[in-house]
Specification:
four-stranded mixed beta sheet; about 10% strand; 4 strands; Protein Binding, DinI Protein, Chain A; rod-shaped
Length: about 200
Amino acid sequence: MKGTSLIVSIVLAVAVLVLYILHFTGGNTILDVSGDSPVSERTDGLKIAYIKSDSLIMNYDYAEVLHDEFMKKQEAFTQEYGSKRQTFEREAAEFQQKLQRGGFLTEQRAIQERDRLVGREQEIVKLDQDLSTRLAEMQAANNQMIIDSLLNYLKIFNAGKNYDFILNAGDVLIGPESDNITSQVLQAMNARYQASQTKK
């Protein structure tokens, strides 16, 4: 809870700073000479644009492919865990019935079977933890690949546009829609991804 309030305080401080700068530097909107879209040209010469990264990620073909692969892995892991868990529960129920019927020749044999089942249960708990860890690592790796792809493309994109800042719209409380380059970047990134897939 304390960490959340710190994050909120930082975000608000950044937002207030951005609003202060935008308010006191004024702004004139002009049309980009390339004709692509209007951009805001600040009197101090700063060119600022922003991207709605959540929209971009939701519609980015590469992110969809990574998500589909993740879901398939998750389903396979769930099936593997579920199958082993069912087998264990069946064996445990059989052990309990056999114990109640007096189906073990000796008490020692019953103890051995109980210990074996306890060991199997521990293996299943460990499997669950291992699979959860692997899924979390895969999700983190996917997120990093998407971020890397976006940042790499933005460097190329910005080489021709010369923006001073390209912000994440999550941190922009208010701004002209003309500074929103999400659609341009998304179309170009999807085209770039599709071109890389046809080369394979």
